[in-house]
Structures are given as structure tokens and as C-alpha cells.
TrEMBL record:
<dbReference type="GO" id="GO:0044331">
    <property type="term" value="P:cell-cell adhesion mediated by cadherin"/>
</dbReference>
<feature type="domain" description="Cadherin">
    <location>
        <begin position="52"/>
        <end position="132"/>
    </location>
</feature>
<dbReference type="InterPro" id="IPR027397">
    <property type="entry name" value="Catenin-bd_sf"/>
</dbReference>
<dbReference type="GO" id="GO:0005509">
    <property type="term" value="F:calcium ion binding"/>
</dbReference>
<keyword id="KW-1133">Transmembrane helix</keyword>
<dbReference type="InterPro" id="IPR039808">
    <property type="entry name" value="Cadherin"/>
</dbReference>
<protein>
    <submittedName>
        <fullName>Cadherin 11, type 2, OB-cadherin (osteoblast)</fullName>
    </submittedName>
</protein>
<dbReference type="GO" id="GO:0016339">
    <property type="term" value="P:calcium-dependent cell-cell adhesion via plasma membrane cell adhesion molecules"/>
</dbReference>
<dbReference type="GO" id="GO:0008013">
    <property type="term" value="F:beta-catenin binding"/>
</dbReference>
<keyword id="KW-0677">Repeat</keyword>
<dbReference type="GO" id="GO:0002009">
    <property type="term" value="P:morphogenesis of an epithelium"/>
</dbReference>
<feature type="domain" description="Cadherin">
    <location>
        <begin position="242"/>
        <end position="356"/>
    </location>
</feature>
<feature type="domain" description="Cadherin">
    <location>
        <begin position="460"/>
        <end position="576"/>
    </location>
</feature>
<dbReference type="Pfam" id="PF01049">
    <property type="entry name" value="CADH_Y-type_LIR"/>
</dbReference>
<feature type="domain" description="Cadherin">
    <location>
        <begin position="133"/>
        <end position="241"/>
    </location>
</feature>
<feature type="domain" description="Cadherin">
    <location>
        <begin position="357"/>
        <end position="460"/>
    </location>
</feature>
<dbReference type="InterPro" id="IPR000233">
    <property type="entry name" value="Cadherin_Y-type_LIR"/>
</dbReference>
Length: 769
């Protein structure tokens, strides 16, 4: 729309001074402009014209346009004020544009009017079809739903302006899916249109829905979407057995719990609606067979509950019912939701092991019965139609000692005498094997009791000693003893006690028999110094049949007690025997003692008076008595017999070095006179013995057989040399003349050392010559 006239609007106001003020309004000639979208003409489309009151048409005014799209989409003629759109506009992208216009002087660009905004609106046309933004759709509806049941609502959107014309007015229709479903034109709600739609017949439906704008009239744009509708299951089908009669078989050798057969009722429904529960409702085999349900396959499993016997009954009949545990009340009239089937079970013959008439056997046999004594008989038979003969045997592991044997007809006998006291019961097994069959065997337990025979004498229950005080009073019971019998005792049977005949009239002890034996004292004055132990034989009789008796010895020990009869000691103490030997025996003993003493004294006297030495030295050169050894010392490497530290450092040993082979505990002082010679002693034998005793009692003296080897020779000894070779050339104060009086044993020494002066003179003479 183009405006070419000016709108003059003014208001009169009274000022403070009473003047009438005139406000000049803007002199634009313009309004809200419109432009049609999607214009595709060859020339730019004229949007509108701007004109100012100050424009006199002489070209001195310049129109300027700014804002959204100014200069790119919208251009203005700066002389005339005409606005043109240079590009095609899309309302769905931008519905309106806000621009600003201003009139300025052409030569100075000075604003002649304040700037003012105006709006250019894009006018809508129907150029967008409806769209289903959330398609395709998936929906579920229960089967057998009533007509008109809502399934799902679909919604389409139109990008055109809903406030201008019918461009965005939509109408829904169904293009595919009739006659099963329908759609509401205004809301897009899909509903069922056909009754009794059965899932088992068809489960899924593909429906196509159309949305059209312009109210559905011709020329409107449209869009479509797909809806997949699935029928969900309901329990509208009862279970059904494929067969009315089932046949099964079971062998008679099957054990309870084994499976016989399976059957299953079909139900077209799914999940919980298709579950089938089974049960036995009738038949002559309800007590012989049982029914369970396999949780995975949902099959009815027939199992054996009891043993079947082909020879007794060869066939059974069962009636099974299968029903739905979950029933929909809406479809009760479609029932009943259960079915029945009959099962025929035949029993097959099998080669079974023999069967014993009794489940177990118990027999008795007397102990000590001779070998071959009859114990009892077992019997087994073949229950098969062939009725084959049966043989018997005793498994060795049940009769390790081989006490029993069995004959071909099942008669059990003993092979040796049995002892009840060793084993009172024998529990064996007997196997029965069918002859000519498949060597199947059956076993039965045979319990054999060994009957007691009175063949064991009674015995004392305890073998402990009886302790009795020396001061016991006559008539006092010191012990009560009882008896044991390995044999079985009858309730009327009892033991009887008595003293053995050899002590029946003794003066010390007696007993009282009252099923036990009370031992009491007959006298007083017992003394353990005289006799500390008494043995009392007691005879015990069991009064059985045949009667058995035994003699048992009771030991009675005499003990020392205090005034309260408390036992202090029962040990045997040493004491002086009373003189009971004869005079002749004493004289003989004394004579022997005197003779022995005389022999000892005589021997000592002879030793002292004997002049000859114990060892006779022959008159021969002393060198002949020298024993030569080829053993050599270990040298400096031998460290076993000496202290190497002392030898390597002799200066570190201050004074006396103790021996290493013994540890002296006491240092004995030298006896007076040990350091000087006994030159004046005539009895050399006593002198030697005294020296030997001193050496033996001195712990610091080395033994004569102790040889020590030293690798360190040292720097000499403070005591000097003990060699006789050096004594010739050294001055010595010793006088060896006393050796002449020591007798023949020291004659050689007297000759060597007793002629000192002569030896020196001889040496001097030789030197002079």
C-alpha cells in the first residue's frame, strides 16, 4: 500500500505564560507493509513507499533505510522512498522484518526527521505439507477387543501459518488397514473397527494414516505415516492333547523313579495363558505310577512309583487331565479350558534275579558245637516264567574266618567250633544265583547267634593286693571280693566262695559267702617283720550247668599304720633276722673268715721280706732295654697335642704353664722332703711306693704314657738340662754314693754316677796325654 498524503496531527497545549504550544507530528506517509512469500517474478517486488512532509520534490532530501535485511533483501530509492524486495522470502524462515527509515539532507546528510521503525510482514501461502514427526508408530492391542477400542493417537504438524487461511488446518484419514481399524479425522485416534480379531489367526497389521491440510479440500498438501499394530495374547484357547490315547511300556526290572514316558497338551496361547497343569485323575495304576511336569519343556512326565512285576500284572491304565491354571473371566463361556487323555502302560518281562522268601534270617547255634552242625536253611526262587534253579554261596568278605558253609539247597552248617566269648554274633550274607540265567544274584542277610555254654570258670573281679594293718583286730572284714564269669549268667545263678581245702583251717583268715566273699581276720598280732605277705587261695563256683569252678589267690600285704588305722608304709624294710643258725654253722663261718685273714697277712709279709725284685733285670747292657720307635712327630703342623699359641709366644707364659690334657682342681703343696734325695733311706722299695702314691694323687703331674710333641724348641729352660751327658762336664753338688746301698736293682746307676771322681780323673789324664 502506498501512501502519498501526509497525516498532520497536532495538539494544542497551554504553557506557563498562556501561550498556545503547537507540537509538529512526524510527516511520514507509510504504514505496515506486506510482501507475499515465495514470489518468483522477474522484477523486484515493490513493498511500499516512504514520503516525508519536508520533501518538496526538489531532490534535496535523501531517504536512508537500515535494519533487518536492509541493503540485501530490501533496497530503497533515496529520492522517491520506494522500497523493493530483491530476494524471495520464506515465511517459515522469518515471518517479519523490522526496519528503520530516516530523511536527511542530501548535501549535508543532516537528519531532517528523527528515525522511525516500521515492519515488513511476509504473507503466508500454503507451501508446506503436513509431517508426522514421531512416525513410524508401533502399537499393541489385545486380541478379541471390542469395536472402537482405542489403539494409538497419531499427530502431524504443518509449518504454514495457522492464523492465516486453511494452510495449517489438518484432516486425518486411513489409507491402509481397513476394515480392521479406523481413525478419527480431527484427532488422529486409531480405533479397532472389526470384532473378534484373533491373534492365533493374524498377529500383526500394517496401517497407513494420511494427514491433509486446507481442511482436506482439493489442492491441499498431505503427508502419511505407518502404524504397525500387534495383537497381544489373551487366554481364549483351551489346551488340547494331540492324541486321546497314548501307549507306553515299562520293564519289570526298572526301579522306582525311572521315567516311563511323556505327553504334552498343546495350547495356542502364549506365556502364562498357554501354561498347562497336568494331573492323574483315574486309572488302576495311580498307586504304581506318578506324574510330574518338566519345567523346561512343559511336558507331563510319567514315572515309576513302585516296582512292577510282569508275572503279577502285565498292564495298567491311567487318565491324565491337562488344564489352564490362569483363566480369563471374559472368556469363561468359551470353555472348558481343559482336556483329558488315556495312557495304556504295558509291563515287559525281564530276567530278574532270584528272590529270597524272607527279607532276612536269624538262627542260633550252640558254641563248641562240632564242625558240620546245622545252623539253618535259606530259600530263594526264580520268579521268571522260566523258573530256573538257584545256587547259593557265602561271600568270603562276610565270613573271613570261614566259620560257615552252605550247600546247593541252601543249608548252612558250621565248619569249626564256635566260641561265644570270642564272637557272640556272626552276620553273614548269602547270595542266590540263577543257574542258566544272566548270572544275576540276590543277597540276603543271615544273623547267627552263638548260644552260650557254661565252659568258662569264674574269676576274681580284681587282682589288686589287699592292704592290712599290723594292728588289725580279729573278726574285722579287710576286703570284700566279687567274681566275674565270661559266660552268660542266669538270673537265678550266683557265685559261691570258699577257702581252698589246703587253707580251710588256717589260723589267720577266713571268709563269709554271700554272693560275694567277705574276708575277715581270725587273730591279731601280725608283724610285717615276721611275714609281710600272705597268699589266700579262694575257690569260686558258678553253680552253672555243668558247674565250673576255679581257685584264685588273694594277696594280703601287712602294712604299718597309725593309731587311726591309716596306712603309713607297706614297703619291705631291712631288719635283723632272729638267730636261728646252728652252732656248727656259726663255727664254720668263723673258721673261713680266720683263714682268709691269715692268707692276706701272709701274703703282705712275704711281699715285704722278699729280696728279689718283682721284675728281674738280667746282667746285660742297658742299651738292650731301649725300645726304638719309627714314629715321627707332626712337626710344626701338628697342633693336636699342644697349645700352639703358647709355643709361638713363650714369653707370654709367666711362670708355671698348666697342663692342657687335665684341669687340676686343687694344687697340692709339696710334702716336706720331696725336694731332697733320700740318701739315708735303706728301704728303697718304700721310697718308690711313696713316690708313686704322690704322683697318683697329684692332678698336676702328667701321666707316664702322655707324650707331647712341641715344634718350638725355645730358648732354654731355667731349670737347666736333665741330661746325664751334660752332668759330666758341669759342676754338681749331688752325691750319688748312696746308690751303692740300694741293692742290685740300682747297681748300674751306682756304677754310672757313683764313680764321679774317677771319671773326672780319667778324663784329665787323657787330656794330659
Amino acid at each position: 500500500m502506498k501512501y502519498s498524503h501526509s497525516l498532520h496531527k497536532h495538539r494544542q497545549r497551554t504553557g506557563k505564560e498562556g501561550q498556545v504550544l503547537h507540537r509538529s507530528k512526524r510527516g511520514w506517509v507509510w504504514n505496515q507493509f506486506f510482501v507475499i512469500e515465495e514470489y518468483t517474478g522477474p522484477d523486484p517486488v515493490l513493498v511500499g513507499r516512504l514520503h516525508s512532509d519536508v520533501d518538496s520534490g526538489d531532490g534535496n532530501i535523501k531517504y536512508i533505510l537500515s535494519g533487518e535485511g536492509a541493503g540485501t533483501i530490501f533496497v530503497i530509492d533515496d529520492r522517491t522512498g520506494n522500497i523493493h524486495a530483491t530476494k524471495t522470502l520464506d515465511r517459515e524462515e522469518q515471518a517479519q522484518y523490522t526496519l528503520t527509515a530516516q530523511a536527511v539532507a542530501r548535501d549535508t546528510n543532516k537528519p531532517l526527521e528523527p528515525p522511525s521503525e516500521f515492519i515488513v510482514k511476509v504473507q503466508d501461502i500454503n507451501d508446506n505439507p503436513p509431517e508426522f514427526l514421531h512416525g513410524p508408530y508401533h502399537a499393541r492391542v489385545p486380541e478379541m477387543s471390542n469395536v472402537g477400542t482405542s489403539v494409538i493417537q497419531v499427530t502431524a504438524t504443518d509449518a504454514d501459518d495457522p492464523t492465516y487461511g486453511n494452510s495449517a488446518r489438518l484432516v486425518y484419514s486411513i489409507l491402509q488397514g481397513q476394515p480392521y481399524f479406523s481413525v478419527e479425522p480431527q484427532t488422529g485416534i486409531i480405533r479397532t473397527a472389526l470384532p473378534n480379531m484373533d491373534r492365533e489367526a493374524r498377529q500383526e497389521y500394517d496401517v497407513v494414516i494420511q494427514a491433509k491440510d486446507m481442511g482436506g479440500h482439493m489442492g491441499g498438501l498431505s503427508g502419511t505415516t505407518e502404524v504397525r499394530i500387534t495383537l497381544t495374547d489373551v487366554n481364549d484357547n483351551p489346551p488340547k492333547f494331540p492324541q486321546s490315547v497314548y501307549t507306553m511300556s515299562v520293564s519289570e526290572d526298572k526301579v522306582p523313579g525311572e521315567e516311563v514316558g511323556r505327553l504334552k497338551a498343546k495350547d495356542l496361547d502364549l506365556g502364562e495363558n498357554g501354561l498347562v497343569a497336568y494331573r492323574l485323575i483315574d486309572g488302576d495304576g495311580m498307586n504304581v505310577f506318578e506324574l510330574t511336569t518338566d519345567s523346561e519343556t512343559r511336558e507331563a512326565v510319567i514315572k515309576l512309583k513302585k516296582h512292577v512285576d510282569y508275572e503279577t500284572k502285565r498292564g495298567y491304565s491311567l487318565k491324565v487331565e491337562g488344564s489352564n491354571p490362569h483363566i480369563d473371566s471374559r472368556f469363561l463361556t468359551w470353555g472348558p479350558y481343559k482336556d483329558e487323555a488315556t495312557i495304556k502302560i504295558s509291563v515287559e518281562d525281564a530276567d530278574e534275579p532270584p528272590v529270597f522268601i524272607a527279607p532276612s534270617y536269624t538262627y542260633e547255634v550252640e558254641e563248641n558245637a562240632p564242625a558240620g552242625a546245622v545252623v539253618g536253611r535259606v530259600h530263594a526262587k526264580d520268579t521268571d516264567a522260566a523258573n530256573n534253579p538257584v545256587s547259593y554261596m557265602i561271600p568270603r568278605y562276610t565270613d573271613l574266618e570261614k566259620f560257615f558253609s552252605i550247600s546247593e539247597d541252601g543249608l548252612i552248617t558250621t565248619t569249626k567250633p564256635l566260641d561265644r566269648e570270642t564272637q557272640a554274633w556272626h552276620n553273614i550274607s548269602v547270595s542266590a544265583i540263577e543257574i542258566g540265567g544272566h548270572h544275576q544274584d540276590a543277597k540276603v542277610r543271615v544273623n547267627i547267634k552263638v548260644k552260650d555254654v557254661n565252659d568258662n570258670p569264674p574269676e576274681l573281679a580284681s587282682n589288686n593286693e589287699v592292704l592290712m594293718c599290723e594292728t588289725v583286730s580279729p573278726g574285722k572284714v579287710i576286703e570284700t571280693v566279687s567274681a566275674l564269669d565270661k559266660d552268660e549268667m542266669d538270673h537265678r545263678q550266683h557265685f559261691s566262695f570258699s577257702l581252698a581245702p589246703e587253707v580251710a583251717h588256717n589260723q589267720n583268715f577266713s571268709l563269709t559267702d554271700n554272693s560275694t566273699a567277705s574276708i575277715y581276720v581270725l587273730r591279731k598280732g601280725f608283724s610285717r617283720l615276721t611275714q609281710d605277705v600272705y597268699f589266700l587261695p579262694i575257690e569260686i563256683n558258678d553253680n552253672g550247668f555243668p558247674p565250673m569252678s576255679s581257685t584264685n589267690t588273694l594277696t594280703i600285704r601287712v602294712c604299718s599304720c597309725d593309731s587311726k588305722d591309716t596306712i603309713l608304709s607297706c614297703n619291705v624294710e631291712p631288719y635283723v633276722l632272729p638267730a636261728g643258725l646252728s652252732t656248727g654253722a656259726l663255727i664254720a663261718i668263723l673258721a673261713c673268715i680266720v683263714i682268709l685273714l691269715a692268707i692276706v697277712v701272709l701274703f703282705v709279709a712275704l711281699r715285704r721280706q722278699k729280696k728279689e725284685p718283682l721284675i728281674v733285670f738280667e746282667e746285660e747292657d742297658i742299651r738292650e732295654n731301649i725300645i726304638t720307635y719309627d714314629d715321627e712327630g707332626g712337626g710344626e703342623e701338628d697342633t693336636e697335642a699342644f697349645d700352639i699359641a703358647t709355643l709361638q709366644n713363650p714369653d707370654g707364659a709367666n711362670g708355671f704353664l698348666p697342663r692342657k690334657d687335665i684341669k687340676p682342681e686343687l694344687q697340692f703343696p709339696l710334702r716336706p722332703g720331696m725336694g731332697r734325695s733320700e740318701a739315708n733311706s735303706v728301704d728303697v722299695d718304700d721310697f718308690i711306693k711313696t713316690r708313686i702314691a704322690d704322683a697318683d694323687s697329684d692332678p698336676t703331674a702328667p701321666p707316664y704314657d702322655s707324650i707331647q710333641i712341641y715344634g718350638y724348641e725355645g730358648r732354654g729352660s731355667l731349670a737347666g738340662s736333665l741330661s746325664s751327658l751334660e752332668s759330666v762336664t758341669t759342676e754338681s753338688d749331688l752325691d750319688y754314693d748312696y746308690l751303692q746301698s740300694w741293692g742290685p736293682r740300682f747297681k748300674k746307676l751306682a756304677d754310672l754316677y757313683g764313680t764321679k771322681d774317677c771319671s773326672i780323673n780319667d778324663v784329665d789324664d787323657n787330656e794330659d796325654s
